Amino acid sequence: MTLSPMTLIEGHKPITPASGIPVWDVDPYDAELLRDPSAYYSRLRELGEVVYIPRYSVLAVGRYETTRHVFSDHENFLSSHGVGLNDFKLEDPWRPPSIILEVDQPDHTRTRKVMSRALSPKVVKGFADLFRETADVLVDQLLGKGTIEAVTDLAEAFPTTVFPKAVGMKDVNPRHLVDYGAMVFNAVGPDNALRREAMSHAGEIVPWINAACTRDRLTGDGLGAMVYASADDGTLTEAEAGMLVRSFLSAGVDTTVTGIGNALWCLSQNPDQWQALKRDPALIRPAFEEVLRYTSPVHTFGRTAGQATEIAGFPVEEGTKVICVLAAANMDPAKWGDPEVFRIDRRPVGHVAFGAGIHGCVGQNIARAELEAVLGALIERVDRIEPAGEPVWRPGNAIRALDRLPITLIPN
């Protein structure tokens, strides 16, 4: 079928790739591929610096240097058109765009400053006791059970307890918080079964989220109040403050749930690395960075060419959607040497699990603090983390997370 110039594919305009760009008939959002994506990542890197995927008429990048370059080149590759397949300038998104994630300079600078201030290392340090005390209590409870389903019992339970307190939420619904994150991240993909299932909860969850982000539903001493203070001083409007609080909930729960679950999977599968961590708890931070590199909780995000430009010398036309496969970049042997080996002493500086450039994850300080609390509590109490069944991965259009992870915690 010949598409007219105005025909959109998954909400964006189709392109004609430049001569010489490899063409690969693959569906990067296929559920089976996403359950075990290693071969996809490898083949994407093998094919070249940039690959054309006709199914969605997009370019894809997966080699480390090119992916990092495209993802951080905010002048040529824009976020305001949406970070998924849908081009917000051509088709309305499912919700008002994020004013920090889906925005370009100079507007991005204004909102980024507000969020960076709220999530600064000094502010996050103030939550250290809350995080650690909560982790201690939770791990003690789980040790009494022995064998646990780690995704529900720990990876979801911890952030859905501490993060609403950090934000200052008066209304807490752990299931809604987790499912809202799944909705946000699956929405960046095509209109497939994964997206439709996640969005089927929108009618119930979106109004709840919007209401929970209003000033009167927040305490006066949390991150939410800090954002609303920027409305009081004129930096933001009241509505913008509510949207930034919404961003906490969009990106601050599901990603941390995934990070904790993936960390437990890595350490249960690599008992020598768990013992190394117990011998030297100072390796908690590098261990988490290695978990991020090794498992890439956010595996794919997109950019849109804001003008005619190029990738690795290949012309790229204005409006081209480019999917940046961050997980493929984080496993590029040209960058990491032995990427398939999980080593907590690797210190993988430069991994792109938190993105890169001006849109790098603004919440990475608090994510690290939560993980440090959980791993710290486990190190003090747990001798071994043993698999107690087959882990089950949950396919997602942007997130690589576990659906189930049965493990046994062997106390000291």
Short description:
The protein has 412 residues and is of the alpha+beta class. The chain has helices spanning 31-35, 38-47, 64-72, 107-118, 121-125, 128-145, 150-156, 159-167, 174-186, 193-199, 202-212, 223-232, 238-251, 254-269, 271-279, 284-295, 326-330, 333-336, 364-381, and strands at 51-53, 58-61, 77-78, 147-149, 300-305, 309-311, 314-316, 321-325, 382-387, 392-394, 401-404, 406-411. It comes from Alloyangia sp. H15.
Uncertain residue ranges: 1-5
The largest β sheet comes out as: 5 strands, mixed
- Averaging pLDDT over every residue, what do you get? 96
Q: Based on DSSP secondary structure assignment, what is the total number of beta strands?
A: 12
Helix content: 40-55%
State the secondary-structure class: alpha+beta
Keywords: Heme, Iron, Metal-binding, Monooxygenase, Oxidoreductase
GO molecular function, one term: iron ion binding
Family: Belongs to the cytochrome P450 family.
Protein name: Cytochrome P450
